[in-house]
Amino acid sequence: MKYLSFRTALVALLACGLIAACASPAFADDAAATYKAKCAMCHGPDGKGTAVGTKMGARDFASPEVKAETDAQLTDIITKGKGKMPSYSGKLKDAEIKDLVTHIRGLAK
After folding, report:
1. In 1-109, where does DSSP find H-type helix?
2. CATH fold of 27-107, please?
3. CA distance 4 to 74
4. What is the sign, positive or negative, of the torsion defined by CA atoms of 66, 50, 92, 31?
5. For 16-30, how does the pLDDT look when each residue is reduced to its tens digit (9 = 90+)?
6. CB–CB of 65/59 below 8 Å?
7. What is the pLDDT of residues 53-91, one digit of tens each?
């Protein structure tokens, strides 16, 4: 019986790894597409900010201030808006916002 439990656990672990590996590029593509459509016009393709965005208060994602914010704080800013940035509540799903936060963290590196 222990053999079956170990074997079942191993198969489940491998399946989860395969699913995660296959899903990662799709997640990255979706988050990048959402970022490009909703954020890049002000925050720039690299997260450093465009000339117009910077004048309106868009922050550089690599700045110490943004890096110090928690994922929950960034989620709140995207959801509710801040300053001249519009709210995306009702425009983006929670999962899309979460993926955007992950994408933004990647731009900050």
Report:
1. 2-38, 40-43, 51-56, 64-68, 71-80, 94-107
2. Cytochrome Bc1 Complex; Chain D, domain 2 (1.10.760)
3. 45
4. negative
5. 443 444 444 455 689
6. yes
7. 999 999 999 999 999 999 999 999 999 999 999 999 999
* 3-state SS class at 94: helix
Question: Tokens representing 36?
Answer: 């490009």
Residue with tokens 């000339």: 51
Count how many Cα atoms sit within 13 Å of the Cα of residue 99 in the half-sphere of its side chain: 20
Using alpha carbons, list the distances in angstroms from residue 58 to 66, 67, 108, 109: 11, 14, 14, 18
The CB density around residue 92, as the number of other CB atoms within 10 Å, is 17
Listing DSSP states for 59-72 in one string gives PPTTSHHHHHS-HH
* Residue 46 DSSP SS3: coil
CB neighbourhood size of 82 (10 A): 14
pTM attached to this predicted model? 0.73
Name, in order, each residue with C-beta under 8 angstroms of 82's C-beta and a sequence gap of 6 or more: none
- Give the pair of three-digit tokens for residue 68: 């110090």
